[in-house]
Amino acid sequence: MPISAVCVDASFVVALVTSEAHSARALAMWAEWMREDVEVVSPMLLRYEVTSALRRKAVRGVMSSQDARRSLKEALSLDIELLDPLHLSLRAFDLAARLDQPATYDAHYLALAEMAGAELWTADQRLCRAAQHVDLAIRWLGSP
User: Are 14 and 53 in contact (CB under 8 A)?
Assistant: First the structure.
């Protein structure tokens, strides 16, 4: 059965627009989704997290500031619908508590995926491990 929507987190988008361990898989998944007209969604905080991650790469010398800015422009131009449904933060709060996480950033992606009935795609293996005992559809880019 074809999927109609997926949720992506900041780690997925950063892998998509920069050279990372799982960039090839991110690019392949993105191309497949675009070909199959899959709706890609994310919470509004995606913009802020991607901006921050790319700035960190520039500060650490992983990439030049110019390349980071170019990657940010590319990330911001992706066909991702940014959503902020009512009660998203409340659900994220509850999920973070259930996962014993002190912050709710990752939980916002999980909550949106749950609300949208979509898989969450991430390059964050730590998030996948933390969420493995929760009945949510989460996919790590490093999985076969």
Answer: yes
Alpha-carbon distance 78 to 144, whole Å?
25
- Give the whole-angstrom CA distance, residue 28 versus residue 89: 31
User: What tokens appear for 44 in the block?
Assistant: 């509004």
pLDDT tens digits, one per residue of 90-116: 999 999 999 999 999 999 999 999 999
CATH of 5-140, picked from 3.40.50.620, 1.10.472.10, 3.20.20.140, 3.40.50.1010, is 3.40.50.1010
Sign of CA dihedral 132, 135, 138, 144: positive
Q: What is the pTM of this model?
A: 0.95
**In 36-121, alpha helices (H):** 46-59, 65-76, 88-98, 105-116
Least Cα distance to 108 among 44, 54, 48 occurs for 44
- Whether residue 22 contacts residue 9, with contact meaning beta carbons closer than 8 Å, is answered with no
DSSP at 63: S
